[in-house]
Amino acid sequence: MTASAGQAGAGSPGTLPEPQVQAMFDRIAGVYDRMNAVMTAGLDRRWRQRAADLAAVSPGDRALDVATGTGDLALELARRVAPGGEVVGADFSEAMLEIARTKSGAGGSASGTIVRFEAANALELPYDDDAFAAATVGFGARNFSDLRRGLAEMARVVVPGGRVVVLEITTPTRPPLSTLLGVWFDHIVPALGRLAGDPDAYEYLPNSVRRFPGPEQLAAILYACGLRDVSYRLTAGGIIALHVGTVSSR
What we know:
The protein is α/β, with parallel strands linked by helices. The protein has one domain (18-168, 214-247): Vaccinia Virus protein VP39 (Rossmann fold, 3-Layer(aba) Sandwich), CATH 3.40.50. Helices cover 42% and strands 22% of the residues. It has helices at residues 18-40, 44-55, 72-81, 94-104, 147-156, 177-196, 201-210, 215-224; strands at residues 62-66, 86-91, 109-110, 113-119, 132-138, 158-169, 227-235, 240-247. The chain is globular, with a radius of gyration of 17 Å.
């Protein structure tokens, strides 16, 4: 599925060191959007629209998209904060960011909104406390080597009362979906990766999904990071989870 973000070191069990993950996303940047479209039958765009809706931003707001990859979720946010708003898309893959900048158009603006794509580490966001009305991450949280720290950073930079939204693949536990997803991840996705010329990257994807917390556990982590009114909804038959929480007063 999609890309980006993370922090250095050995990280959590099953993760790769940051330089390897960063290099992997730099390598697949050119085929990334096409692979997403193929693997999701084009539904990934709709899921990002729903994530942007959950951010509940308004015209003139300032929003952050972490692990922005090629920028699609950031651009969804830009449509919602126009006119007069600002969106920052942060990622550690410069190749991904270059594609995002191209998408955003000359001057990085969309409908009167300032859109900036810049290099940043998800675990050490270079932004002040309370700098944004909302923060999102789409298909990137599973690449955080320290999930709790990354989510806590997102909460830190959002104003009290603002929202943090996490869009991620989750693993169904009951057949037939659990069986179908296993076949998809174990056979189809690696085959697509070979066709794309980077089998290692598309073997990493299934592993990153399998080690990611389930919906209830992720909701508990968000609560522990200072978010309240945490809720989640499953879509695509339970394969996609959308979590949202509100930043509590400090």
